[in-house]
Design a protein that fits this description.
Blueprint: H1 20-29, E1 48-51, H2 63-70, E2 82-88, E3 91-98, E4 100-102, E5 107-108, E6 115-116, H3 121-134, H4 160-164, H5 173-180, H6 191-199, H7 216-230, H8 234-246, E7 252-253, E8 268-271, E9 274-277, E10 290-292, H9 294-306, H10 311-318, E11 337-341, E12 344-353, E13 356-363, E14 368-374, H11 381-393, H12 405-409, E15 419-422, E16 429-435, E17 438-441, E18 444-448, E19 453-456, E20 462-465, E21 475-478, E22 485-490, H13 497-501, E23 505-509, E24 514-521, E25 524-529, E26 533-541, E27 544-547, E28 550-556, E29 562-569, E30 572-579
Antiparallel strand pairs: 1-3, 2-3, 2-14, 4-5, 6-10, 7-10, 8-9, 11-12, 12-13, 13-14, 15-16, 15-22, 16-17, 17-18, 18-19, 19-20, 20-21, 21-22, 23-24, 23-30, 24-25, 25-26, 26-27, 27-28, 28-29, 29-30
Helix pairs in contact: 2-11, 3-7, 3-8, 3-10, 6-7, 9-10
Length: 582
């Protein structure tokens, strides 16, 4: 079949911004500011490189200064930082950068600095898949095993759209690698490793379409599908069909992490002694791995709005949200989160990988987009990006009034709901408590809606208990992510020394290709894993322990003897380890 090329659109006009070298020279020599532009000075130890084009009438006059305040803590020549770009009514109204791209060599961040965008990458991968669908080369309703037969047959059809919307039920391969002892920051992986890990999984987290669970596996598989269907590498297809047609001159995939990329920042994580380098050491991409600038992201955001890449059908398919098996619609589409923000429609996504952080947000009714890229691990993605959006939304950004938790909770008997609850599928727990007359889960307050229903915090999540009685009951979780999630009441547990000793033994997992050696030591349970990793787990309820974010449930056979353990870790549900006899 002949491949259909995307609709041709005129290339964007050449940038009228001064070159990086020109701006640096201006900083050094004190060249007067050009009309309509501003080059930020160095103030003591604080470094800011900035360009401000004329601000549209909707933007507050002090917008740039308010953005500076958001990023003040990273505005230093002793810290990595961020770049920010704002586009309003088709005009770049702000491009600004803070902190250093390279602490070792004293190179500052600029608006042209290349960062890694983490999960912002997913929308580019979705776009490549949609373009092939528009070419007639595949359908989003196709079974992924039609293209990747190495995946096990679980008895269900997993469609490409399931992969795009995180509703496939596939385990996250990176989480499995972490369970194996060789996570994404400990060993270099490529797409062959992704297929190898997924091919060994004997179960899904859930039936496809049952719920939403974020899984990088889906987007790595989409990248693999694009390569196999197009007959070229995923990186080459993206360059030919997306990056070049849109004029994304600074955008490419990190398909070879050793490749030299001019202008790329180094990523850093915070330590007790300051900063350390933390950049991805893998060739896996599609889930992450997009290398780009805030300027290119501004062009990309416009393309998702006006259809300059693939026309109206491209825009529609990119924004097609996932549907669960119960008929409900989730907020996740083609690498895009579509949900209201501060009272206005928004299309957003965040990114986080190694020490890189990222945010892209589009607010269609206000013709506004915000792009943020950072090389500092302590930069809050959604927090900072949304804060910039609020600046430019101005009075259009509104928040619902704070509920009166005290009044709604008054004269209600809440103590009967307090206690520990567990998810029967993953074993994960949550605890409800009454404090100052209000039912709480951690820092979140629960607002009574009826005798059995509560709203959790200010979001849309609700807990609906089976009954209102003195005896605790289980409850259903009502949220866009789930079609059926429950928590059941459990009691905390303090095992005796003989009870702990019964769990000691050797347990093996084919799926994670690893072995755990469990022993009882000094009144606690300790897990050892090769080559020399050891950690203690704490009891939470009967036969169940927690440590390092992992829930470990020991399974008993008909005789009552422990013969297996089940491990759940975030994006991996109920992975089985069999006990080795002896």
């Amino acid at each position: 079949m002949t491949r259909r090329t995307p609709a041709q659109t005129p290339p964007p006009p050449p940038s009228t911004r001064p070159s990086l070298a020109t701006r640096r020279l201006a900083l050094t020599l004190g060249i007067p500011r050009a009309p309509g532009r501003r080059i930020g000075p160095v103030l003591g130890a604080a470094l800011v490189v900035a360009i401000c084009l004329p601000i549209s009438a909707q933007a507050p006059p002090d917008a740039a200064e308010r953005v500076d305040e958001i990023f003040e803590r990273w505005n230093s020549n002793a810290s990595p930082g961020c770049a920010i770009g704002v586009v309003q009514d088709g005009l770049v109204v702000l491009e600004r950068a803070y902190g250093m791209a390279d602490l070792e060599h004293g190179i500052p961040n600029t608006p042209e600095t290349v960062f890694e965008g983490g999960s912002l990458s997913k929308q580019f991968t979705a776009a490549a898949t949609v373009l092939l669908a528009l070419d007639g080369k595949l359908s989003l309703d196709d079974d992924v095993r039609d293209y990747v037969p190495e995946l096990p047959d679980y008895g269900y059809t997993i469609t490409l759209h399931h992969l795009m919307t995180h509703t496939s039920g596939l385990r996250d391969w990176g989480s499995v690698a972490s369970i194996s002892g060789w996570g994404r920051e400990q060993r270099s992986h490529d797409h062959a490793d992704v297929i190898d890990i997924l091919s060994r999984q004997t179960a899904l987290n859930f039936v496809p379409g049952h719920e939403y669970s974020y899984s990088n596996s889906g987007y790595n598989l989409l990248a693999i599908v694009v390569a196999r269907v197009s007959g070229m590498s995923f990186a080459e297809f993206s360059r030919e069909r997306i990056f070049e047609p849109l004029g994304l001159r600074h955008t490419q995939w990190r398909d070879d992490y050793r490749r030299i990329v001019p202008g790329r920042s180094t990523a850093y994580s915070t330590t007790s002694n300051g900063w350390e380098i933390n950049r991805p050491i893998e060739d896996v991409h599609g889930n992450g791995g997009i290398l780009t600038t805030v300027g290119d992201l501004g062009i990309w955001a416009a393309a998702l709005q006006d259809g300059r890449l693939g026309g109206p059908d491209f825009v529609r398919m990119m924004h097609q949200r996932g549907t669960l098996n119960d008929g409900s619609t989730i907020v996740y589409a083609g690498g895009l989160m579509i949900e209201p923000f501060a009272g206005v429609p928004s299309v957003t996504h965040t990114g986080s990988t190694a020490g890189y952080r990222a945010f892209i947000g589009r607010y269609p009714d206000q013709a506004l987009s915000v792009a943020m890229l950072c090389n500092a691990s302590n930069a809050p993605t959604g927090g900072n990006g949304s804060a910039v959006a609020r600046v430019y939304l101005g009075g259009m950004a509104t928040d619902p009034p704070r509920p009166d938790y005290e009044a709604a909770s008054r004269a209600r008997s809440l103590d009967r709901f307090a206690g520990l609850y567990a998810d029967p599928v993953t074993g994960s727990t949550l605890e409800l408590r009454v404090q100052d007359g209000i039912l709480r889960q951690g820092s979140a307050m629960l607002l009574p809606l009826s005798e059995t229903a509560f709203q959790v915090g200010s979001g849309g999540r609700r807990y609906v208990f089976d009954r209102a009685s003195d005896a605790r009951s289980g409850f259903e979780v009502e949220d866009w992510q789930y079609s059926n999630q429950r928590y059941e009441p459990v009691e905390s547990w303090s095992p005796s020394a003989p009870e702990l000793a019964a769990f000691a033994g050797t347990y093996q997992s084919v799926e994670a290709e690893t072995t755990y050696r469990v022993r009882s030591e000094d009144g606690r349970l300790v897990i050892w894993q090769r080559p020399d990793d050891e950690y203690a787990v704490e009891p939470i309820y009967a036969d169940t322990f927690e440590g390092r974010g992992r829930v470990i449930r020991f399974r008993r056979g008909e005789s009552g003897r422990i013969d297996a353990l089940s491990l759940s870790l975030g994006r991996v549900y109920d992975m089985s380890f069999e006990r080795v006899p002896g």
